[in-house]
Protein backbone atom coordinates (compact mmCIF):
# COMPACT_ATOMS: atom_id res chain seq x y z
CA UNK A 1 0.00 0.00 0.00
CA UNK A 2 1.33 3.42 -0.87
CA UNK A 3 0.23 6.98 -0.25
CA UNK A 4 0.60 9.29 -3.22
CA UNK A 5 0.89 12.96 -2.37
CA UNK A 6 0.56 15.22 -5.36
CA UNK A 7 1.04 19.01 -5.14
CA UNK A 8 -0.57 20.57 -8.20
CA UNK A 9 -1.79 23.88 -9.59
CA UNK A 10 -5.23 24.68 -8.13
CA UNK A 11 -6.97 25.00 -11.49
CA UNK A 12 -5.84 21.47 -12.44
CA UNK A 13 -7.77 19.82 -9.59
CA UNK A 14 -10.97 19.05 -11.49
CA UNK A 15 -9.12 17.50 -14.41
CA UNK A 16 -6.95 15.33 -12.17
CA UNK A 17 -9.92 14.25 -10.05
CA UNK A 18 -11.94 13.25 -13.12
CA UNK A 19 -9.01 11.34 -14.61
CA UNK A 20 -8.41 9.42 -11.37
CA UNK A 21 -12.12 8.67 -10.85
CA UNK A 22 -12.16 7.41 -14.45
CA UNK A 23 -9.52 4.81 -13.63
CA UNK A 24 -11.36 3.52 -10.57
CA UNK A 25 -9.90 5.56 -7.71
CA UNK A 26 -12.74 5.79 -5.18
CA UNK A 27 -11.52 8.38 -2.74
CA UNK A 28 -9.07 11.15 -2.15
CA UNK A 29 -8.28 13.92 0.33
CA UNK A 30 -7.66 17.43 -0.94
CA UNK A 31 -6.07 20.33 0.97
CA UNK A 32 -5.41 23.95 0.01
CA UNK A 33 -1.74 24.56 0.67
CA UNK A 34 0.88 27.20 -0.03
CA UNK A 35 4.51 26.80 -0.88
CA UNK A 36 7.35 27.39 -3.24
CA UNK A 37 9.87 25.32 -5.14
CA UNK A 38 12.31 26.29 -7.82
CA UNK A 39 9.69 28.70 -9.15
CA UNK A 40 10.41 30.92 -6.10
CA UNK A 41 7.10 32.78 -5.79
CA UNK A 42 6.06 35.67 -7.97
CA UNK A 43 6.41 39.46 -8.11
CA UNK A 44 3.37 41.65 -7.52
CA UNK A 45 2.96 45.44 -7.35
CA UNK A 46 0.92 47.22 -4.67
CA UNK A 47 0.55 51.00 -4.85
CA UNK A 48 3.75 51.33 -6.84
CA UNK A 49 5.93 49.12 -4.64
CA UNK A 50 6.99 45.74 -6.00
CA UNK A 51 6.92 42.83 -3.60
CA UNK A 52 7.42 39.11 -3.75
CA UNK A 53 4.71 36.64 -2.90
CA UNK A 54 6.89 33.80 -1.71
CA UNK A 55 4.24 31.19 -1.02
CA UNK A 56 1.94 30.45 -3.92
CA UNK A 57 -1.37 28.68 -3.52
CA UNK A 58 -1.35 24.98 -4.51
CA UNK A 59 -3.59 21.96 -4.02
CA UNK A 60 -2.36 18.84 -2.27
CA UNK A 61 -4.09 15.58 -3.22
CA UNK A 62 -3.58 12.53 -1.01
CA UNK A 63 -4.57 9.08 -2.26
CA UNK A 64 -3.74 5.68 -0.78
CA UNK A 65 -3.64 2.90 -3.38
CA UNK A 66 -2.58 -0.76 -3.55
CA UNK A 67 0.96 -1.40 -4.83
CA UNK A 68 -0.18 -2.57 -8.25
CA UNK A 69 -1.89 0.76 -9.03
CA UNK A 70 0.87 3.12 -7.89
CA UNK A 71 2.66 3.46 -11.21
CA UNK A 72 -0.58 3.91 -13.17
CA UNK A 73 -1.91 6.61 -10.81
CA UNK A 74 1.32 8.58 -10.84
CA UNK A 75 1.51 8.50 -14.61
CA UNK A 76 -2.10 9.66 -14.82
CA UNK A 77 -1.46 12.62 -12.50
CA UNK A 78 1.66 13.62 -14.42
CA UNK A 79 -0.24 13.45 -17.70
CA UNK A 80 -3.19 15.56 -16.53
CA UNK A 81 -1.56 18.09 -14.17
CA UNK A 82 1.20 18.98 -16.61
CA UNK A 83 1.13 22.40 -18.29
CA UNK A 84 4.80 22.44 -19.21
CA UNK A 85 5.39 25.61 -17.17
CA UNK A 86 7.29 26.12 -13.94
CA UNK A 87 5.15 25.62 -10.85
CA UNK A 88 3.35 22.49 -12.08
CA UNK A 89 4.12 20.81 -8.75
CA UNK A 90 5.53 17.55 -7.40
CA UNK A 91 4.45 14.01 -6.52
CA UNK A 92 5.69 12.03 -3.51
CA UNK A 93 5.30 8.27 -2.97
CA UNK A 94 5.17 7.16 0.66
CA UNK A 95 4.86 3.62 2.10
CA UNK A 96 1.74 2.98 4.23
CA UNK A 97 1.71 0.22 6.89
CA UNK A 98 -2.00 -0.40 7.17
CA UNK A 99 -5.41 1.13 6.40
CA UNK A 100 -8.70 0.77 8.34
CA UNK A 101 -12.26 1.71 7.50
CA UNK A 102 -13.72 3.31 10.61
CA UNK A 103 -17.37 2.29 9.99
CA UNK A 104 -16.78 -1.46 9.57
CA UNK A 105 -13.31 -2.05 10.94
CA UNK A 106 -12.20 -3.59 7.61
CA UNK A 107 -8.49 -3.40 6.97
CA UNK A 108 -5.97 -3.67 4.17
CA UNK A 109 -7.09 -3.53 0.55
CA UNK A 110 -10.76 -3.79 1.57
CA UNK A 111 -10.48 -0.58 3.50
CA UNK A 112 -9.30 1.50 0.52
CA UNK B 1 -21.95 53.71 42.16
CA UNK B 2 -25.11 54.40 44.18
CA UNK B 3 -24.41 58.11 44.01
CA UNK B 4 -23.99 57.91 40.28
CA UNK B 5 -27.39 56.26 39.89
CA UNK B 6 -28.94 58.91 42.14
CA UNK B 7 -27.47 61.71 40.04
CA UNK B 8 -28.61 59.96 36.87
CA UNK B 9 -32.18 59.72 38.17
CA UNK B 10 -32.10 63.35 39.23
CA UNK B 11 -31.03 64.45 35.74
CA UNK B 12 -33.75 62.37 34.07
CA UNK B 13 -36.38 63.78 36.44
CA UNK B 14 -35.37 67.40 35.82
CA UNK B 15 -35.41 66.73 32.11
CA UNK B 16 -38.94 65.32 32.35
CA UNK B 17 -40.22 68.26 34.35
CA UNK B 18 -38.67 70.69 31.88
CA UNK B 19 -40.10 69.03 28.80
CA UNK B 20 -43.58 68.59 30.27
CA UNK B 21 -43.80 72.25 31.21
CA UNK B 22 -42.59 73.19 27.75
CA UNK B 23 -45.11 71.06 25.95
CA UNK B 24 -48.01 71.68 28.33
CA UNK B 25 -48.87 74.80 26.39
CA UNK B 26 -49.47 72.78 23.24
CA UNK B 27 -52.72 74.00 21.70
CA UNK B 28 -54.98 72.76 18.92
CA UNK B 29 -53.48 72.91 15.37
CA UNK B 30 -54.09 76.21 13.56
CA UNK B 31 -56.76 76.23 10.85
CA UNK B 32 -55.55 75.24 7.37
CA UNK B 33 -54.54 78.10 5.07
CA UNK B 34 -53.31 78.46 1.52
CA UNK B 35 -49.57 77.77 1.11
CA UNK B 36 -47.56 80.37 -0.77
CA UNK B 37 -44.95 79.59 -3.40
CA UNK B 38 -42.18 80.82 -1.11
CA UNK B 39 -43.29 78.38 1.56
CA UNK B 40 -43.17 75.52 -0.93
CA UNK B 41 -39.67 76.64 -1.90
CA UNK B 42 -38.70 76.76 1.76
CA UNK B 43 -39.90 73.22 2.32
CA UNK B 44 -38.09 72.02 -0.79
CA UNK B 45 -34.89 73.67 0.54
CA UNK B 46 -35.29 71.81 3.82
CA UNK B 47 -35.88 68.48 2.11
CA UNK B 48 -32.96 68.82 -0.29
CA UNK B 49 -30.53 70.02 2.37
CA UNK B 50 -31.48 67.22 4.75
CA UNK B 51 -31.47 64.48 2.11
CA UNK B 52 -28.04 65.73 1.04
CA UNK B 53 -26.92 65.62 4.67
CA UNK B 54 -28.02 62.00 4.89
CA UNK B 55 -26.03 61.21 1.72
CA UNK B 56 -22.95 62.85 3.20
CA UNK B 57 -23.49 60.90 6.39
CA UNK B 58 -23.33 57.68 4.36
CA UNK B 59 -19.84 58.67 3.23
CA UNK B 60 -18.73 57.55 6.69
CA UNK B 61 -19.49 54.00 5.59
CA UNK B 62 -17.44 54.62 2.46
CA UNK B 63 -14.44 55.85 4.44
CA UNK B 64 -14.71 52.87 6.79
CA UNK B 65 -14.71 50.39 3.90
CA UNK B 66 -11.86 52.08 2.00
CA UNK B 67 -9.68 52.17 5.08
CA UNK B 68 -10.52 48.63 6.19
CA UNK B 69 -9.90 47.29 2.69
CA UNK B 70 -6.53 49.02 2.30
CA UNK B 71 -5.20 47.69 5.61
CA UNK B 72 -4.59 44.24 7.07
CA UNK B 73 -7.29 41.92 8.38
CA UNK B 74 -5.81 41.96 11.88
CA UNK B 75 -6.69 45.67 12.24
CA UNK B 76 -10.17 45.74 10.68
CA UNK B 77 -12.12 46.02 13.94
CA UNK B 78 -9.96 48.95 15.00
CA UNK B 79 -10.63 50.76 11.70
CA UNK B 80 -14.36 50.23 12.10
CA UNK B 81 -14.31 51.50 15.68
CA UNK B 82 -12.31 54.59 14.73
CA UNK B 83 -14.73 55.43 11.93
CA UNK B 84 -17.76 54.83 14.12
CA UNK B 85 -16.37 56.91 16.96
CA UNK B 86 -14.95 59.89 15.05
CA UNK B 87 -18.48 60.36 13.72
CA UNK B 88 -20.05 59.93 17.15
CA UNK B 89 -17.55 61.81 19.33
CA UNK B 90 -17.18 64.39 16.57
CA UNK B 91 -20.92 65.02 16.32
CA UNK B 92 -21.13 65.67 20.06
CA UNK B 93 -18.06 67.92 20.03
CA UNK B 94 -19.38 69.86 17.03
CA UNK B 95 -22.73 70.28 18.75
CA UNK B 96 -21.16 71.48 21.97
CA UNK B 97 -18.38 73.72 20.66
CA UNK B 98 -17.54 73.42 16.97
CA UNK B 99 -20.74 74.78 15.45
CA UNK B 100 -20.58 77.91 17.60
CA UNK B 101 -16.94 78.56 16.66
CA UNK B 102 -17.65 78.00 12.98
CA UNK B 103 -20.99 79.72 12.45
CA UNK B 104 -21.60 81.86 15.54
CA UNK B 105 -21.61 85.64 15.50
CA UNK B 106 -18.05 86.96 15.20
CA UNK B 107 -16.48 90.34 15.79
CA UNK B 108 -13.03 89.46 14.48
CA UNK B 109 -13.66 87.19 11.51
CA UNK B 110 -11.42 84.52 13.10
CA UNK B 111 -14.02 82.48 15.03
CA UNK B 112 -17.63 82.67 16.22
CA UNK B 113 -18.71 83.04 19.80
CA UNK B 114 -22.41 82.17 19.87
CA UNK B 115 -24.60 79.13 19.33
CA UNK B 116 -22.74 76.60 21.46
CA UNK B 117 -24.79 73.49 22.35
CA UNK B 118 -27.25 74.70 19.69
CA UNK B 119 -28.42 77.13 22.38
CA UNK B 120 -29.63 79.71 19.87
CA UNK B 121 -32.36 77.28 18.94
CA UNK B 122 -35.27 77.57 21.34
CA UNK B 123 -38.66 75.95 21.10
CA UNK B 124 -40.58 77.44 18.14
CA UNK B 125 -37.25 78.77 16.89
CA UNK B 126 -36.29 78.75 13.23
CA UNK B 127 -35.92 75.08 12.24
CA UNK B 128 -33.42 76.15 9.57
CA UNK B 129 -30.87 76.24 12.40
CA UNK B 130 -31.40 72.50 12.78
CA UNK B 131 -31.36 71.68 9.07
CA UNK B 132 -28.21 73.73 8.60
CA UNK B 133 -26.56 72.14 11.64
CA UNK B 134 -27.42 68.69 10.34
CA UNK B 135 -25.75 69.46 7.01
CA UNK B 136 -22.67 70.92 8.71
CA UNK B 137 -22.15 68.19 11.29
CA UNK B 138 -21.66 65.52 8.62
CA UNK B 139 -19.10 67.76 6.88
CA UNK B 140 -17.21 68.06 10.13
CA UNK B 141 -17.28 64.27 10.51
CA UNK B 142 -15.87 63.92 6.99
CA UNK B 143 -12.87 66.08 7.83
CA UNK B 144 -12.31 64.20 11.08
CA UNK B 145 -12.41 60.71 9.58
CA UNK B 146 -9.75 61.43 6.93
CA UNK B 147 -6.99 61.13 9.52
CA UNK B 148 -7.99 57.62 10.55
CA UNK B 149 -6.59 56.03 7.40
CA UNK B 150 -3.25 57.83 7.46
CA UNK B 151 -2.59 56.70 11.04
CA UNK B 152 -4.06 53.22 10.59
CA UNK B 153 -2.63 50.02 12.07
CA UNK B 154 -0.52 51.61 14.82
CA UNK B 155 -2.48 54.28 16.75
CA UNK B 156 -3.74 53.89 20.30
CA UNK B 157 -7.53 53.93 20.24
CA UNK B 158 -7.91 56.27 23.21
CA UNK B 159 -5.52 58.79 21.64
CA UNK B 160 -7.55 58.68 18.44
CA UNK B 161 -10.72 59.43 20.42
CA UNK B 162 -9.05 62.47 21.97
CA UNK B 163 -7.90 63.63 18.53
CA UNK B 164 -11.48 63.28 17.15
CA UNK B 165 -12.81 65.63 19.79
CA UNK B 166 -10.15 68.29 19.18
CA UNK B 167 -10.45 68.37 15.38
CA UNK B 168 -14.26 68.49 15.54
CA UNK B 169 -14.42 71.04 18.34
CA UNK B 170 -11.54 73.28 17.33
CA UNK B 171 -9.29 72.68 14.32
CA UNK B 172 -11.98 72.17 11.68
CA UNK B 173 -14.47 74.81 12.92
CA UNK B 174 -11.94 77.63 13.24
CA UNK B 175 -10.73 77.29 9.66
CA UNK B 176 -14.32 76.72 8.55
CA UNK B 177 -15.37 80.01 10.11
CA UNK B 178 -12.79 81.86 8.00
CA UNK B 179 -14.20 80.52 4.74
CA UNK B 180 -17.84 79.66 5.42
CA UNK B 181 -18.96 81.60 8.52
CA UNK B 182 -21.33 83.84 6.58
CA UNK B 183 -23.37 80.84 5.41
CA UNK B 184 -25.01 81.30 8.81
CA UNK B 185 -24.34 83.99 11.44
CA UNK B 186 -20.58 84.44 11.09
CA UNK B 187 -18.41 86.31 8.63
CA UNK B 188 -14.87 85.07 8.02
CA UNK B 189 -11.88 87.12 6.89
CA UNK B 190 -11.03 84.71 4.07
CA UNK B 191 -14.46 84.66 2.47
CA UNK B 192 -14.44 88.44 2.76
CA UNK B 193 -11.53 88.46 0.30
CA UNK B 194 -13.56 86.41 -2.22
CA UNK B 195 -12.16 82.94 -1.50
CA UNK B 196 -13.93 80.27 -3.60
CA UNK B 197 -14.46 76.91 -1.92
CA UNK B 198 -18.01 75.90 -2.70
CA UNK B 199 -18.20 72.51 -0.97
CA UNK B 200 -14.89 72.24 0.84
CA UNK B 201 -11.81 71.15 -1.12
CA UNK B 202 -9.87 73.17 1.42
CA UNK B 203 -12.35 73.63 4.27
CA UNK B 204 -13.04 69.91 4.62
CA UNK B 205 -10.51 67.88 2.64
CA UNK B 206 -7.28 69.81 3.02
CA UNK B 207 -8.05 70.29 6.71
CA UNK B 208 -8.36 66.52 7.10
CA UNK B 209 -5.41 65.87 4.80
CA UNK B 210 -2.96 68.19 6.58
CA UNK B 211 -4.03 66.86 9.98
CA UNK B 212 -3.43 63.37 8.56
CA UNK B 213 0.05 64.42 7.43
CA UNK B 214 0.89 65.70 10.92
CA UNK B 215 -0.44 62.49 12.48
CA UNK B 216 1.48 60.19 10.14
CA UNK B 217 4.72 62.11 10.75
CA UNK B 218 4.40 62.19 14.55
CA UNK B 219 3.45 58.52 14.89
CA UNK B 220 6.02 57.19 12.40
CA UNK B 221 5.75 54.30 9.92
CA UNK B 222 4.32 50.85 10.63
CA UNK B 223 6.76 48.11 11.61
CA UNK B 224 8.08 46.55 8.41
CA UNK B 225 7.13 49.46 6.15
CA UNK B 226 10.70 50.69 5.68
CA UNK B 227 13.48 48.13 5.73
CA UNK B 228 17.05 49.36 5.17
CA UNK B 229 15.60 52.69 4.05
CA UNK B 230 13.51 51.11 1.31
CA UNK B 231 9.72 51.30 1.16
CA UNK B 232 8.00 47.92 1.24
CA UNK B 233 4.48 47.01 0.22
CA UNK B 234 2.00 46.09 2.94
CA UNK B 235 -0.99 45.05 0.80
CA UNK B 236 -4.50 45.74 2.05
CA UNK B 237 -6.61 42.72 2.89
CA UNK B 238 -9.71 43.40 0.81
CA UNK B 239 -9.65 45.42 -2.40
CA UNK B 240 -13.28 44.45 -3.03
CA UNK B 241 -14.34 46.17 0.17
CA UNK B 242 -12.20 49.19 -0.66
CA UNK B 243 -13.91 49.46 -4.06
CA UNK B 244 -17.33 49.29 -2.42
CA UNK B 245 -16.18 52.09 -0.13
CA UNK B 246 -15.16 54.24 -3.10
CA UNK B 247 -18.51 53.68 -4.82
CA UNK B 248 -20.28 54.67 -1.58
CA UNK B 249 -18.13 57.80 -1.33
CA UNK B 250 -18.83 58.74 -4.94
CA UNK B 251 -22.55 58.29 -4.26
CA UNK B 252 -22.33 60.30 -1.04
CA UNK B 253 -20.55 63.08 -2.90
CA UNK B 254 -23.84 63.82 -4.69
CA UNK B 255 -24.94 65.09 -1.30
CA UNK B 256 -21.63 66.73 -0.54
CA UNK B 257 -21.37 68.93 -3.67
CA UNK B 258 -24.92 69.44 -5.00
CA UNK B 259 -26.19 69.62 -1.41
CA UNK B 260 -23.90 72.53 -0.67
CA UNK B 261 -26.41 74.80 -2.39
CA UNK B 262 -28.45 74.19 0.79
CA UNK B 263 -31.33 75.18 -1.47
CA UNK B 264 -33.53 73.29 -3.88
CA UNK B 265 -32.56 75.17 -7.02
CA UNK B 266 -31.45 74.43 -10.56
CA UNK B 267 -27.74 74.87 -9.79
CA UNK B 268 -27.60 71.31 -8.51
CA UNK B 269 -27.69 70.03 -12.10
CA UNK B 270 -24.35 71.45 -13.19
CA UNK B 271 -22.80 70.67 -9.82
CA UNK B 272 -23.85 67.02 -10.15
CA UNK B 273 -22.54 66.85 -13.73
CA UNK B 274 -19.20 68.43 -12.77
CA UNK B 275 -18.89 66.05 -9.83
CA UNK B 276 -19.52 63.03 -12.06
CA UNK B 277 -17.15 64.11 -14.83
CA UNK B 278 -14.32 64.96 -12.46
CA UNK B 279 -14.62 61.65 -10.59
CA UNK B 280 -14.64 59.73 -13.86
CA UNK B 281 -11.68 61.71 -15.21
CA UNK B 282 -9.85 61.19 -11.91
CA UNK B 283 -10.22 57.43 -12.27
CA UNK B 284 -8.95 57.57 -15.87
CA UNK B 285 -6.07 59.88 -14.94
CA UNK B 286 -4.90 57.65 -12.09
CA UNK B 287 -5.37 54.43 -14.04
CA UNK B 288 -3.35 55.67 -17.02
CA UNK B 289 -0.62 57.12 -14.80
CA UNK B 290 -0.29 53.89 -12.81
CA UNK B 291 -0.38 51.84 -16.03
CA UNK B 292 2.49 53.85 -17.48
CA UNK B 293 4.49 53.76 -14.25
CA UNK B 294 3.95 50.17 -13.07
CA UNK B 295 3.04 48.46 -16.37
CA UNK B 296 -0.33 47.40 -14.90
CA UNK B 297 -3.49 49.45 -14.23
CA UNK B 298 -3.26 49.52 -10.42
CA UNK B 299 -6.63 48.98 -8.70
CA UNK B 300 -5.91 50.75 -5.43
CA UNK B 301 -4.44 53.77 -7.25
CA UNK B 302 -7.46 53.94 -9.56
CA UNK B 303 -9.74 53.92 -6.52
CA UNK B 304 -7.66 56.77 -5.07
CA UNK B 305 -8.03 58.49 -8.45
CA UNK B 306 -11.82 58.56 -8.17
CA UNK B 307 -11.52 60.21 -4.77
CA UNK B 308 -8.87 62.61 -6.07
CA UNK B 309 -11.23 63.71 -8.86
CA UNK B 310 -14.05 64.18 -6.35
CA UNK B 311 -11.91 66.18 -3.92
CA UNK B 312 -10.51 68.20 -6.84
CA UNK B 313 -13.91 69.37 -8.09
CA UNK B 314 -15.37 70.04 -4.65
CA UNK B 315 -14.20 73.67 -4.48
CA UNK B 316 -15.14 74.64 -8.03
CA UNK B 317 -18.12 72.40 -8.71
CA UNK B 318 -20.50 75.38 -8.88
CA UNK B 319 -18.35 77.86 -10.80
CA UNK B 320 -16.59 75.86 -13.55
CA UNK B 321 -17.91 74.43 -16.82
CA UNK B 322 -18.15 70.67 -17.45
CA UNK B 323 -15.14 70.68 -19.80
CA UNK B 324 -13.04 72.21 -17.03
CA UNK B 325 -14.32 69.59 -14.59
CA UNK B 326 -12.89 66.88 -16.85
CA UNK B 327 -9.49 68.59 -16.89
CA UNK B 328 -9.53 69.16 -13.12
CA UNK B 329 -10.31 65.48 -12.54
CA UNK B 330 -7.72 64.19 -15.03
CA UNK B 331 -4.99 66.27 -13.43
CA UNK B 332 -6.10 65.27 -9.92
CA UNK B 333 -5.90 61.60 -10.95
CA UNK B 334 -2.33 62.08 -12.17
CA UNK B 335 -1.34 64.12 -9.12
CA UNK B 336 -2.63 61.56 -6.66
CA UNK B 337 -0.47 58.72 -8.03
CA UNK B 338 2.68 60.84 -8.12
CA UNK B 339 1.93 62.23 -4.67
CA UNK B 340 1.38 58.77 -3.14
CA UNK B 341 4.70 57.56 -4.56
CA UNK B 342 6.49 60.74 -3.47
CA UNK B 343 5.17 60.65 0.10
CA UNK B 344 5.70 56.90 0.39
CA UNK B 345 9.08 56.46 -1.25
CA UNK B 346 10.81 59.85 -1.10
CA UNK B 347 9.50 61.52 2.05
CA UNK B 348 9.12 58.05 3.65
CA UNK B 349 5.93 59.00 5.46
CA UNK B 350 3.71 55.95 5.92
CA UNK B 351 0.14 56.74 4.84
CA UNK B 352 -1.48 53.33 4.27
CA UNK B 353 -4.53 54.62 2.37
CA UNK B 354 -3.12 57.70 0.61
CA UNK B 355 -5.23 60.13 2.67
CA UNK B 356 -2.68 62.96 2.57
CA UNK B 357 -2.42 62.76 -1.22
CA UNK B 358 -6.15 62.39 -1.88
CA UNK B 359 -7.43 64.98 0.58
CA UNK B 360 -4.53 67.30 1.38
CA UNK B 361 -2.76 67.57 -1.97
CA UNK B 362 -5.78 67.19 -4.27
CA UNK B 363 -7.76 69.49 -1.96
CA UNK B 364 -5.14 72.17 -2.57
CA UNK B 365 -5.19 71.44 -6.30
CA UNK B 366 -8.99 71.69 -6.39
CA UNK B 367 -8.93 75.01 -4.58
CA UNK B 368 -6.42 76.45 -7.03
CA UNK B 369 -8.38 74.95 -9.94
CA UNK B 370 -11.58 76.63 -8.75
CA UNK B 371 -9.80 79.93 -9.43
CA UNK B 372 -7.95 78.87 -12.60
CA UNK B 373 -11.07 77.51 -14.31
CA UNK B 374 -13.54 80.07 -12.94
CA UNK B 375 -16.26 80.36 -15.60
CA UNK B 376 -16.70 84.02 -14.76
CA UNK B 377 -13.10 84.82 -15.72
CA UNK B 378 -9.73 84.62 -14.03
CA UNK B 379 -7.76 87.47 -12.51
CA UNK B 380 -4.52 87.51 -10.58
CA UNK B 381 -6.49 88.57 -7.53
CA UNK B 382 -8.69 85.48 -7.69
CA UNK B 383 -5.65 83.20 -7.99
CA UNK B 384 -3.91 85.08 -5.20
CA UNK B 385 -6.84 84.67 -2.82
CA UNK B 386 -7.13 80.97 -3.68
CA UNK B 387 -3.42 80.49 -2.95
CA UNK B 388 -3.78 82.48 0.27
CA UNK B 389 -6.61 80.17 1.36
CA UNK B 390 -4.52 77.07 0.59
CA UNK B 391 -1.54 78.39 2.54
CA UNK B 392 -3.68 79.67 5.45
CA UNK B 393 -5.27 76.23 5.76
CA UNK B 394 -1.88 74.52 5.94
CA UNK B 395 -0.47 77.06 8.37
CA UNK B 396 -3.44 76.69 10.72
CA UNK B 397 -4.03 72.94 10.52
CA UNK B 398 -0.59 71.39 10.23
CA UNK B 399 1.00 73.09 13.27
CA UNK B 400 -2.06 72.72 15.52
CA UNK B 401 -2.48 69.05 14.60
CA UNK B 402 1.26 68.47 14.98
CA UNK B 403 1.22 69.97 18.48
CA UNK B 404 -1.93 68.02 19.32
CA UNK B 405 -0.36 64.69 18.35
CA UNK B 406 2.89 65.56 20.17
CA UNK B 407 0.83 66.37 23.28
CA UNK B 408 -1.09 63.11 23.01
CA UNK B 409 2.21 61.27 22.57
CA UNK B 410 3.63 62.90 25.71
CA UNK B 411 0.53 62.28 27.85
CA UNK B 412 -1.59 59.22 27.06
CA UNK B 413 0.77 57.83 24.41
CA UNK B 414 0.01 57.82 20.70
CA UNK B 415 1.35 54.47 19.57
CA UNK B 416 0.56 50.93 20.66
CA UNK B 417 3.30 48.54 21.79
CA UNK B 418 5.40 46.65 19.28
CA UNK B 419 3.88 43.34 20.37
CA UNK B 420 0.36 44.66 19.90
CA UNK B 421 1.19 46.09 16.49
CA UNK B 422 2.53 42.74 15.32
CA UNK B 423 -0.39 40.80 16.73
CA UNK B 424 -2.94 43.29 15.41
CA UNK B 425 -4.94 46.06 17.09
CA UNK B 426 -8.17 44.09 16.94
CA UNK B 427 -7.22 41.74 19.74
CA UNK B 428 -5.00 44.21 21.61
CA UNK B 429 -7.30 47.25 21.59
CA UNK B 430 -10.76 45.70 21.28
CA UNK B 431 -10.45 42.07 22.35
CA UNK B 432 -12.12 40.73 19.23
CA UNK B 433 -11.07 39.65 15.76
CA UNK B 434 -12.85 40.84 12.63
CA UNK B 435 -12.80 37.41 11.00
CA UNK B 436 -12.63 34.73 13.72
CA UNK B 437 -13.96 32.01 11.40
CA UNK B 438 -11.64 32.84 8.52
CA UNK B 439 -8.16 31.55 8.05
CA UNK B 440 -5.70 34.43 7.80
CA UNK B 441 -2.58 33.73 5.75
CA UNK B 442 0.16 36.04 6.94
CA UNK B 443 2.61 34.34 4.58
CA UNK B 444 0.58 35.50 1.58
CA UNK B 445 1.23 39.15 2.35
CA UNK B 446 4.74 39.34 1.02
CA UNK B 447 5.80 40.98 4.25
CA UNK B 448 7.48 38.66 6.65
CA UNK B 449 6.55 40.57 9.77
Please tag this protein with its features.
heterodimer, A: 112 residues, alpha+beta, Alpha-Beta Plaits, four-stranded antiparallel β-sheet, two-stranded antiparallel ribbon, 6 strands, B: 449 residues, Ammonium transporter fold, 15 helices
Report on the architecture of this protein.
The complex is a heterodimer of chains A (about 110) and B (about 450). In chain A, about 20% of the residues lie in helices and about 35% in strands. Chain A contains 2 helices and 6 strands, in the order E-H-E-E-E-E-H-E. The radius of gyration of chain A is 17 Å and the shape is elongated. With about 450 residues, chain B is mainly α. Chain B has a single domain (about 40-440), classed as Ammonium transporter AmtB like domains (Ammonium transporter fold, Orthogonal Bundle), CATH 1.10.3430. Helices cover about 65% and strands about 0% of the residues of chain B. A two-stranded antiparallel sheet of chain B has the order 1-2. The mean pLDDT of chain B is about 90. The interface of A and B includes residues 48, 51 and 57 of A.
Amino acid sequence: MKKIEAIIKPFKLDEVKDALSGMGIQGMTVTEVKGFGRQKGQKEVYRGTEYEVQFLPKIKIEIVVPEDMVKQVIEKIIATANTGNIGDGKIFEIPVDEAYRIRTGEKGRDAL
Amino acid sequence: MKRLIMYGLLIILTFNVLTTTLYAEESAPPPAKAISASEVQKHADFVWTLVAAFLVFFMQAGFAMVEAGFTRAKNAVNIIMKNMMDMSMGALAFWAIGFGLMFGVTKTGWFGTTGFFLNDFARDGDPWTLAFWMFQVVFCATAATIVSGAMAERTKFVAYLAYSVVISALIYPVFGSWAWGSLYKGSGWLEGLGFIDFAGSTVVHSVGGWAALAGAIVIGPRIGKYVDGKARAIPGHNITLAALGVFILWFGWYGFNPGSTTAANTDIAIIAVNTTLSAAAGAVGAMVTSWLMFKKPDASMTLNGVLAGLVGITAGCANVLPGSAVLIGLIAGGIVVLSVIFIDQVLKIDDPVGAVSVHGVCGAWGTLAAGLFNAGGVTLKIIGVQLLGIVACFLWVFPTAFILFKLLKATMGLRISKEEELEGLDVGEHGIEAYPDFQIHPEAKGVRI
